[in-house]
Design goal:
It is a single chain. The protein is globular, with a radius of gyration of 28 Å. The chain has 30 helices and no strands.
């Protein structure tokens, strides 16, 4: 009653309250605009001062200290107890595991001039396992994919890549699945793990390589360990999610029947989570493939090494042929694991209807596979892939011809596109961030972090800015930041256009989404090859590749956000006389703000990883510093500092956009 009496009195209170409320409310966009205006004014006055520029061959005291540490570790690697009994032992175990799998399927084994299992046995095993865990379509795809890689003349390289993937995925799942189950069962452990998983998934693939070579040297061991670290988080996170999503009523029913915690886990939680856990394995395999190819920078064998050498020599044909093999492998691995997850669901629904005839067929298939393995172990014709790779030569030649044709006939168009984006967007913004005083750019970033994400985001940004200054590669970091933000803006433009289209039209979504899913399967390396052919070795090549790499995830997130807008709201706007443009701009996009912010977050992370990889094709900045650190010993310290700078940029972007997404959805 008291509230009912007081509320009308508030509504009768005269005038000034309403204007005061309006003057207090200042939108974030207005504050952001004011910050940018102040930045531009101060830039005009202070341009070129205190920019912390550093020449490509120059080193700071930090870089020299890291070089000294690297030299000291190299000199004492076999005498220091920490290395002698810990790091060297880990490296030895991983090396032996990698060598064992390589001698099994890819490299000569002992006195044998061929592996223990030749191509015919590998194809047979791939087909049988794909059928056993998936279906006959997955088996045909696996057999066709393996055969095609051999016809390309890349059998050994493909098997080297597969060996590293198998080793890394085995080790990753050995740790990831128990940790995921633990995180699913324990809220406390899940809270502890989440920040680490966020951090690990924010870091671009490049960043894992340099510090690991410091402890494990270059080669297969470092590549495998880097892949394990990069590929484990998806399995941990998805396994925990699967355990947590088992209906509570089912768990309670098991408890009421007297099941122990162990029985509840083994008989209820894990069986009901199997499909989602298999999808986590799928994501781990895809992450491992992406990392293994990039690990060629630290002498990891396989298809990645072919691509790196071809990119460095601008051999588009060879790079395209090897990149195509990587794509084929990615599609095969993705489809087989996806089919395995779908089969678990279908088997549960069918209630063992096909078990009676499936088991005898699997037994017969196992016998045939054993015969193929025996033949490939015994006879040279079944061990060495037949042919000389003429199909691969034809593919490389066709790619070179297409490159020459594009450069001769499309150079006007490609140069125009490059010049418009470079001169209209990239150069002005890069000049703004690299020619402004470092403290001014830092203050702007902190202010934007506070406005968009809150004070915690501002504190994180301030710490990242301070550490970026300490790395000694501030100018290169700002160049990378400029390329990343420009590419992200273009990603969001594409994401909004196609995402809205997909969200409004189920037919368009069904047509476009499979292509987006396929695009997300491909490792970052693959995107560089066609754009290297079109635009040559320039920073614009990396930006275009980053746009194509980051756009699919943004499109899918925005499409899902638009589709989630209640249909009744859209119908109400239509009945009020709104046209299509007004419905999109006044209803669907505003109500999808959280999806837009999340798409920006994911787009930034994808773009940053790709822009850095673009250091291989002339993108310069931090990506070049990292690559140079691998190839030139005196620049190792600078390369490691550049890797740290990439991490700091990723953390800063991630924290600001995630905090903004939370504030938007709140």
């Amino acid at each position: 009653m008291t509230v009912a009496v007081e509320k009308p009195e508030r509504t009768r209170t005269p005038g000034p309250a309403a204007p005061v409320k309006e003057t207090r409310k200042v939108s974030r966009s207005m504050v952001v605009g004011a910050i940018l205006v102040v930045w531009l004014v101060l830039f005009a006055v202070l341009r070129g001062k205190q920019t912390l520029a550093l020449a490509a061959a120059d080193l700071t005291d930090l870089h020299r200290w890291i070089n000294d540490v690297n030299d000291s570790i190299g000199a004492n690697r076999n005498s220091n107890p920490l290395f002698l009994y810990f790091f060297n032992e880990i490296r030895l175990v991983i090396d032996n595991l990698v060598i064992f799998i390589q001698e099994l399927i890819s490299q000569p084994s002992g006195a044998r001039p061929v592996p223990q299992i030749g191509w015919l046995g590998v194809v047979g095993i791939a087909g049988y396992l794909s059928w056993a865990v998936g279906n006959w379509r997955a088996a045909l795809l696996a057999v066709a994919g393996c055969t095609f890689m051999g016809l390309q003349g890349l059998w050994q390289e493909s098997m080297d890549t597969l060996a590293l993937i198998l080793c890394a995925v085995f080790v990753a799942l050995l740790f990831a699945l128990p940790l995921g189950v633990w995180a699913g069962l324990s809220d406390r452990f899940n809270r502890i793990m989440t920040p680490f998983l966020d951090f690990m998934q924010t870091m671009p693939t490049f960043v894992y390589l340099a510090p690991l070579t410091l402890f494990f040297l270059i080669g297969g061991a470092s590549a495998t360990i880097a892949t394990v670290i990069y590929a484990a988080p998806p399995a941990i996170r998805i396994t925990a999610h699967a355990i947590r999503n088992v209906p509570a009523t089912t768990v309670e029913a098991a408890d009421s029947l007297g099941a122990t915690r162990r029985q509840s886990l083994l008989k209820v939680l894990l069986p009901m989570s199997k499909r989602t856990v298999v999808m986590g394995v799928n994501q781990t395999i895809m992450a491992a493939l992406a990392m293994v190819t990039i690990a060629a920078l630290i002498n990891a064998p396989g298809l990645g090494a072919v691509v790196v050498q071809a990119l460095q020599s601008l051999d588009v044909g060879t790079a395209f042929n090897a990149g195509l093999a990587i794509v084929v492998m990615a599609i095969v691995l993705d489809r087989v694991t996806t089919a395995a997850a779908a089969r678990e669901e279908n088997a549960r629904r069918s209630k063992n209807r096909f078990v009676t005839w499936r088991r005898p067929l699997l037994g017969a298939g196992a016998a045939v596979t054993a015969v193929l393995v025996y033949l490939s172990h015994t006879y040279l014709w079944a061990a060495e892939f037949p042919g000389d790779g003429t199909i691969g030569s034809h593919i490389a030649s066709a790619a070179d011809s297409a490159t020459a044709w594009a450069q001769d006939n499309l150079s006007g168009l490609t140069n125009a596109i490059r010049d418009v984006i470079t001169n209209g967007l990239l150069n002005p913004f890069q000049t703004l961030v690299t020619d402004s005083p470092w403290w001014l750019v830092g203050a702007v970033l902190v202010a934007l972090g506070v406005v968009l994400g809150g004070w915690r985001s501002g504190v994180t940004t301030a710490v990242c800015v301070g550490l970026l200054v300490g790395t000694g590669v501030w100018s290169d970091a700002m160049t990378t930041l400029a390329s990343t933000l420009v590419a992200t803006v273009l990603v969001m433009v594409l994401g909004i256009v196609f995402g809205v289209w997909m969200g409004r039209s189920p037919l368009v979504d069904r047509v476009i989404r499979p292509s987006l899913d396929a695009a997300q399967v491909m490792p970052p390396f693959v995107y560089l090859v066609p754009f290297l052919a079109l635009f040559g070795p320039t920073r614009f090549t990396a930006i275009v590749a980053a746009i194509v790499y980051g756009a699919p995830v943004a499109m899918k997130i925005i499409a899902d956000g638009v589709r989630a807008v209640p249909e009744t709201t859209v119908e109400a706007a239509t009945s009020a006389g709104c046209n299509t443009w007004q419905i999109i701009t006044k209803v669907q996009l505003p109500m999808s703000r959280s999806a837009l912010t999340l798409a920006t977050n994911q787009g930034l992370i994808y773009v940053l990883s790709m822009v850095v990889v673009g250091g291989l094709v002339g993108a310069g900045a931090l990506g070049y510093d990292v690559v140079a650190g691998f190839s030139q010993g005196q620049l190792f310290g600078k390369g490691l500092a550049a890797g740290l700078a990439i991490v700091l940029l990723g953390v800063m972007f991630d924290r600001i956009t995630q905090a903004a997404a939370r504030r938007t959805s709140a």
